[in-house]
Structures are given as C-alpha cells and as structure tokens.
C-alpha cells in the first residue's frame, strides 16, 4: 500500500470516488510532480493529444531513476490502459488508483526488474464526461460523424486494425449502434493517439493490459497460440480466482472486428496484449446497472489488477535476460482449476465464443438471472476484494445493450433484439389490421341501422 505521506494523500483522492475528468487530469499531473524521485522512481506525465472536446489524453510513466539516468537499453514496458469504453468507470478508476495505492510496491518492481511501467488511465475522456452529465450508459467516444447526422461517437474497441483483415466487418452505416466501427480504421482521434503510443520506441518490448468491465475474464488475441493461451491463463490465476481465462474466436467477423489488442499484437508487433475484464456491480437489476460499480469497489479492483501486473512482469521480464524465453518454452503454470464455475463456452456457430451463464437462480422481483457466488466467495472471506461484483447477467436480458469487450458474453443480444423488434412490429401490424377490421365492421353496422331507420321513417309517413 502507498501508506502515509504524499502517495497516501493522493490515494485518498484517487481510490475512494469517481472523479470528474478535469479532476482526474489534474491528479495525473500531481502524481508526476509529487511522486517523482520518491523511492528512486522517475515519474513523468505526458499529454498525448487533445480530444474533439479539448480534453487531454495523459499518460504517466514510471521507471527506475538509475536506469533512466544511465540510458540503458530499452527495458520491457508494461502499458496498462483504462476507460476505453465510457460507461466502464471502474476500469479507469482502478488504473488511476493503482499508481498511488501501490506506489511502493511498483517502486520495488522497478528496482528489481528491467521494466518500465506506463499508465493511460482514461482513453475516452469525452465519452466519460458524457456519462456523468447526460447518459450514464454511453459507451462510445463523442467523435463527430461526418455522415452520422444526429449521431456521434465511435466504439474505440472496434476502430483498430487493418481494413478487410482485422477491421471492416461491421456495418459502416450503423451510426446508431453502440458497436459502430467508424468509416475507416483509427478514425477516432483517441484510437490514433493510442496507436502512436503503442508504435513508439520498440513495440516488441511492450506488454499491453487493456482493462475493461465486466465479464470477469482474461482474453488473449483472436486465434491465440498455445503459449499465449498459457500466459493468459497464468494472468487470470494471478487474480486469485476472480478472473478466468476465456477463449477468443479464431476468425475475425462482425462481432469482433477492430479489437485493439488484436491490432497491437498482430500488426503493431507488441510482445503480447491482453484484455482484462474486471467484475461489474453485484446483483445488477438490468444490464446497464452492471456498469454502476460502487466507488467502494475501486480499491479492491485495484488490488486485483496490481497482482496481474506483477505476474505480467514475472512472465515477460525474463525475455530480456535471455533465459527461459516464453516464446520458446510454455510457462510452467501452477495447478489451476479451470473449470467453468457456472460459465461455459457455446461455440456452436463456429464464429464467436458466447459465454452463457448456467447454474443460475432467478430473482423473485425481476425476470433477471444472476450467477451464484462461485470463486469470489473464498476471496471475500480472506478479506481480499470485499466489495467486488461477482454476478453477470445472461444474454436473455431484454434491455438494449451491446458491449464490445463483453462481446464473448453478450454478442447474441443484438440478434435477439432485432428479432424482438421484428416480433413487436409484426404484433403492431396485426393489431392495426384487427383495429381497422373492427372499425369497418362498426361502420357497416351503423350504416345498416341508419338505412333501417330511414326505411322505418318512410313507412310511417306513408
């Protein structure tokens, strides 16, 4: 823990509340100024770019001062990214909190391992600001769309890649969709800023951990090698049972086009890239409520991703020593129970992996399904992550939702919603026809009675 002193004061600010983005930016600059030099760590903040709404994208880099001053060969860099999707507040807050809550531990890592740590706490500040003022469930950026009319924003995790290889399999006209991929790769300024950051220096010495919410899994790139699968499994194990490894599809299609980590590893040439899906809110009442993780969970989530960061350093720092390269030798994994714990992979369509919750119970107040406690129960008892959410809804939720990074958990929802819309329109059409038929029948009977009345009046006059 950061403990008392400067880092402790910053921790009190960063780890107990979801800050406005202007406060986050201010805190990032303070982290660089106040922590620089402590425990022999060089801490630097850098503005990468300005968003379309003039908010700064800020990275914080930590490195051993001794190594930085001696200008040694590029060390291994672990880049941790948060806030790619606007509504996933917990991802941004936990990355921010990590820098100060575990600063002393990070200093120990930097002193003993040939590594540099880089943090991009919030990649989507415009979208994040929008969730605080206008629409809490907003997911995309606020990028103006030249052909989008009233619509704005691009799903950042659909805007990376190479056209017709790892990008471009979505609908380019779907300006309304939460999964809108943009009209071309890296259309979003935020995506271009991250692209340039990833390509800077020596990408082959860079590890990327992209933090999201809320599927409780570690995803490697699509069509991952056995070595990469083993590494993802070991990172998941480091979470003490909170996260599980989950397989990605071996092909690119409309459901997983433009994913950032796929481009980073396949084309940018980074050493490895993973998506970390931290847990969402416990017992959400609907899908969007899943992202409303209470601020009390920030510290616990931070503790978990710090353990994963440490494990990443252990896995890959050995590359620089030339011993036991993980490319040539699969890492030795601890004995891990990789049973599904209530989640299984449905791979029937051959294109996408869809997590479907089993062993569920249905709440009495809502037609909503919540998973049993599973692996977090023991962790809670030990005092670790006391407030983290464990429960994830099934794809049966009827609310309008699509989530790019939980695509393996919820990718069938859009199709289900389309069918529901078709059924609703059909029902409305049938109801309209029935109403019209009823009106015609009423008019016919009224005319018959009117004619009968006129004939009766005529007979009376005779």
Automatic annotation (TrEMBL):
Gene Ontology terms describing biological process: proteolysis
Lineage, top-rank taxon, reads Eukaryota
Which molecular-function annotations from GO does this UniProt entry contain? metallocarboxypeptidase activity; zinc ion binding
Record's GO cellular component terms: extracellular space
Q: Which UniProt keywords apply?
A: Carboxypeptidase, Hydrolase, Membrane, Metalloprotease, Protease, Transmembrane, Transmembrane helix, Zinc
Which InterPro entries does the record cross-reference, listed alphabetically? Peptidase_M14
Output this protein's name. Answer: Carboxypeptidase A4
């Amino acid at each position: 823990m950061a403990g008392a002193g400067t880092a402790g004061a910053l921790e009190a600010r960063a780890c107990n509340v979801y800050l406005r983005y202007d406060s986050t930016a201010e805190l990032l600059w303070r982290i660089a100024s106040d922590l620089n030099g402590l425990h022999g760590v060089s801490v630097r903040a850098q503005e990468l770019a300005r968003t379309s709404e003039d908010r700064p994208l800020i990275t914080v880099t930590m490195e051993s001062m001794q190594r930085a001053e001696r200008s040694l060969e590029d060390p291994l860099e672990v880049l941790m990214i948060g806030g790619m999707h606007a509504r996933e507040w917990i991802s941004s807050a936990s990355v921010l909190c990590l820098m100060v809550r575990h600063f002393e531990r990070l200093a120990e890592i930097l002193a003993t391992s040939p590594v540099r740590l880089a943090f991009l706490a919030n990649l989507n500040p415009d979208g994040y600001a929008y969730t605080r003022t206008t629409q809490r469930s907003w997911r995309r950026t606020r990028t103006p769309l030249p052909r989008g009319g009233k619509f704005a924003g691009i799903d950042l995790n659909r805007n990376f890649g190479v056209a017709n290889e790892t990008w471009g399999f979505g609908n380019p006209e779907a300006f309304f969709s939460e999964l809108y991929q943009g009209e071309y790769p890296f259309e979003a300024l935020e995506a271009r800023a991250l692209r340039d950051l990833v390509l800077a220096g020596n990408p082959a010495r860079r590890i990327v951990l992209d933090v999201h919410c809320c599927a409780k899994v570690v995803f490697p790139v699509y069509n991952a090698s056995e070595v990469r699968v083993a590494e993802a499994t070991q990172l998941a194990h480091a979470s003490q049972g909170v996260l599980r490894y989950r397989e990605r599809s071996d092909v690119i299609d409309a459901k997983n086009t433009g994913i950032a980590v796929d481009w980073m590893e396949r084309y940018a040439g980074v050493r490895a890239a993973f998506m970390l899906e931290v847990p969402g809110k416990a017992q959400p009442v609907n899908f969007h409520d899943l992202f409303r993780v209470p601020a009390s969970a920030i510290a616990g989530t931070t503790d978990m991703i710090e353990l994963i960061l440490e494990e990443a350093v252990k896995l890959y720092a050995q590359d620089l020593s030339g011993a036991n390269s993980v490319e040539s030798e699969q890492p030795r994994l601890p004995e891990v129970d990789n049973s599904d714990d209530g989640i299984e992979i449905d791979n029937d369509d051959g294109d996408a992996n869809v997590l479907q919750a089993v062993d569920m119970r249905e709440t009495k107040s809502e037609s909503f399904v919540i998973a049993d406690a599973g692996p977090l129960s023991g962790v809670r008892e030990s005092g670790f992550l006391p407030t983290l959410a464990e429960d994830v809804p099934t794809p049966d939720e009827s609310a309008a939702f699509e989530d790019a990074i939980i695509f393996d958990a919820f990718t069938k929802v859009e199709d289900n919603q389309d069918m529901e819309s078709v059924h609703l329109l059909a029902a409305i059409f049938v109801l309209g026809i029935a109403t019209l038929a009823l009106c015609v029948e009423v008019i016919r009977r009224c005319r018959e009675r009117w004619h009968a009345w006129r004939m009766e009046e005529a007979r009376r006059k005779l």
